[in-house]
Specification:
This protein folds into 3 domains: about 50 residues, no CATH class; about 70 residues, no CATH class; about 55 residues, no CATH class. The chain is about 30% helix and about 5% strand. The chain contains 7 helices and 5 strands. The strands form 2 sheets. It has a 3-stranded antiparallel beta sheet with strand order 3-4-5. A two-stranded antiparallel ribbon has the order 1-2. The relative contact order is 0.12.
């Protein structure tokens, strides 16, 4: 793999294969991994339970959401006949944006020990200091700020539409002709 770009890797060094939905998920894995997930990566198998219809865009075809021209279109898994560009598909089905948490240092915390993530000491002074500091007034403000950020993030995620519904016609994946199971009974709306 060249750097961290899965699209630049060709699978030649390790014998890995691409998920059939690689255009969306960017997953390389050993063949036995796909055998355990009906021929797809685990994420695609749980989200779609089928291979996506990924096709080249027509000569004058534009994405109905962003109105841009793009080389590749992905059909919505509801099989309603609507397709979007990879960027809009990823925005709908991709993982939610991570919340930006406040660092304790923003609230005046200063530790003697600076090795936070790679510390192997059973009683690391960083964490002992952080715990003691969290009991102070400044530590309370730090905790309250992160709790507020988490509530805001949760509220933002609840307002996002169910990705299993087509953004154009609202057809649902579980109603697709080739679907053999009801996605709504297995997983709640996400993203």
């Amino acid at each position: 793999m060249l750097g961290n770009d899965p699209a630049a890797y060709d699978g030649g060094k390790c014998g890995c294969e691409r998920c059939p939905n690689f255009t969306f998920c960017k997953v390389w894995a050993p063949p036995y991994y796909f055998d355990c997930h009906a021929g797809r990566c685990g994420g695609c198998n749980s989200q779609f339970a089928k291979d996506l219809e990924i096709r080249p865009a027509g000569p004058d075809e534009t994405c109905p959401i962003c109105l841009d021209t793009c080389p590749v279109m992905i059909e919505h898994p509801a099989e309603c006949g609507h397709a979007t560009c990879t960027g809009c598909f990823e925005a709908q089905w991709g993982p939610p944006e991570e919340a930006e948490w406040h660092a304790p240092e923003e609230f005046g915390f200063a530790a003697c020990c600076t090795s936070t993530d790679d510390c192997v000491a059973p009683r690391c002074t960083y964490y002992a200091q952080l715990h003691a500091w969290a009991q102070t007034e400044a530590g309370g403000h730090y905790i309250a700020a992160n709790e507020l950020r988490e509530r805001e993030w949760d509220a933002a995620q609840e307002s996002v539409a169910d990705p299993a519904s087509c953004p154009l016609c609202r057809a649902h994946v579980s109603d697709a002709p080739s679907n053999s199971w009801d996605m709504r009974t297995f997983m709640p709306p996400f993203r």
